[in-house]
């Protein structure tokens, strides 16, 4: 459960006096997510999400995240909106953490997505990439090559506790990616964490995207690689080509990938797998026993990384052969 910071009813009521949202009728911590503390609030008007920003979110980045949600929603993307306080600010403070009230998005995330859902995710990702054009604020990706190296330095000497040989394997992988990481592919605002729990559906219809707290400026095709990793593998570790084809088709229908982006997919998938392996490994090694959060398995992403190393061409992800 991701409630790192608890709140008292008195503090919450006090916090809410700064907003025009009606009277609080109930609230509870949300037992999902691993990054921030989230609460579902009911008021005499509408349900709301209260988010308290935790360790991996820099306060200075919050205007980027909250402004981006407004920018995307203004351009027709379905995503939650931060609510302004009476003084116009989007951000307040509660229990010593930066805190925001966010509109409630209807829908559920899918535990067992099928290819048709992957197609919708591909479409929505491309729509987000187009809608992000013109957003004035920028934020470099703190979890790209340099960030991976920093994370790795903090975990390397304990990595073999998780699996023997990891210290050497990941060290070599980082050196490889450092030598060939693409730098000149189309750039824009990316979501950077569009996993299943961040995409809501109503029935088979995608109802919106949430959790923009890793969003940043990076290569658009890197976001596609993140989604291939998050959506197109089965629990047994195998890559599901039908899902991959559907996701890539959905994306291409809205924003066709350019040839250099297609060619770069295998290396982008390796980088993306390494990114989630590294944050999970760090959390695995540092989260205290008994903390109210479900730790995610780093080895799931190690297996994905190894799969991508075996890929010779982007066709193997499900791109049509003639387009590669
Ligand atoms: N705007 C929203 N509308 C409805 N439910 C929401 C909203 N924002 C968050 N939630 C609920 O809270 C849960 C956790 O939210 P979120 O994914 O933003 O947290 P997180 O800690 O940043 O998670 P993650 O591990 O994905 O980074 C979601 O799975 C969803 O159930
Ligand atoms: N989506 C991430 C957690 C949030 O950053 C993961 O599954 O590792």
From TrEMBL:
GO BP terms, alphabetized: threonine biosynthetic process
SUPFAM superfamilies reported in the protein's UniProt record: Protein kinase-like (PK-like)
Keyword ATP-binding: yes
InterPro entries (alphabetical): Aminoglycoside_PTrfase, Homoserine_kinase_II, Kinase-like_dom_sf, Pseudomonas-type_ThrB
Gene3D superfamilies for the chain: 3.90.1200.10, Phosphorylase Kinase, domain 1 (3.30.200.20)
One Pfam family of this chain: APH
Molecular function GO terms recorded: ATP binding; homoserine kinase activity
Keyword terms of this UniProt record: Amino-acid biosynthesis, ATP-binding, Kinase, Nucleotide-binding, Threonine biosynthesis, Transferase
First-tier enzyme category under EC: transferase
Superkingdom, natural source: Bacteria
UniProt pathway: Amino-acid biosynthesis; L-threonine biosynthesis; L-threonine from L-aspartate: step 4/5
Chain ranges of the Aminoglycoside phosphotransferase domain: 27-257
Catalytically driven reaction(s): L-homoserine + ATP = O-phospho-L-homoserine + ADP + H(+)
EC number: 2.7.1.39
HAMAP family: Homoser_kinase_2
Family: Belongs to the pseudomonas-type ThrB family.
The protein's name in its UniProt record: Homoserine kinase
Organism: Pseudorhizobium flavum
Designated gene of the protein: thrB
């Amino acid at each position: 459960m991701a409630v790192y910071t608890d709140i008292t009813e008195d503090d919450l009521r006090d916090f809410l006096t700064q907003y025009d949202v009606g009277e609080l009728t109930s609230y509870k911590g949300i037992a999902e997510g691993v990054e921030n503390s989230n609460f579902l609030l009911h008021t005499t008007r509408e349900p709301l999400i209260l988010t308290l920003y935790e360790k991996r979110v820099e306060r200075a980045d919050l205007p980027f995240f909250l402004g981006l949600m407004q920018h995307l929603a203004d351009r027709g993307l379905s995503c939650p909106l931060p609510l302004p306080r009476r003084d116009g600010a989007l951000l307040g403070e509660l229990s010593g953490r930066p805190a925001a009230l966010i509109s409630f998005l209807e829908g559920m995330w899918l535990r067992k997505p099928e290819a048709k859902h992957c197609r919708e995710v591909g479409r929505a990702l491309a729509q987000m990439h187009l809608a992000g054009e013109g957003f004035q604020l920028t934020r470099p990706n703190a979890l790209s090559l340099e960030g991976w190296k920093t994370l790795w330095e903090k975990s390397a000497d304990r990595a073999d506790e998780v699996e023997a040989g990891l210290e050497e394997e990941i060290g070599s992988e980082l050196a490889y990616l450092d030598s060939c990481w693409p730098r000149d592919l189309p750039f824009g605002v990316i979501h950077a964490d569009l996993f299943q729990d961040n995409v809501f559906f109503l029935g088979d219809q995608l109802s919106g995207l949430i959790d923009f707290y890793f969003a940043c400026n990076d290569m658009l095709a890197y976001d596609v690689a993140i989604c291939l990793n998050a959506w197109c593998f089965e629990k047994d570790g195998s890559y599901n080509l039908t899902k991959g084809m559907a996701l890539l088709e959905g994306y291409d229908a809205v924003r066709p990938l350019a040839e250099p982006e297609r060619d770069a997919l295998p290396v982008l998938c390796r980088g993306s797998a390494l990114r989630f392996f590294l944050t999970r490994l760090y959390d695995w090694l540092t989260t205290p026993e008994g903390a109210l959060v479900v730790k995610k398995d780093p080895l799931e992403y190690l297996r994905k990384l190894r799969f991508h190393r075996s890929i010779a061409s982007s066709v193997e992800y499900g791109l049509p052969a003639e387009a590669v």
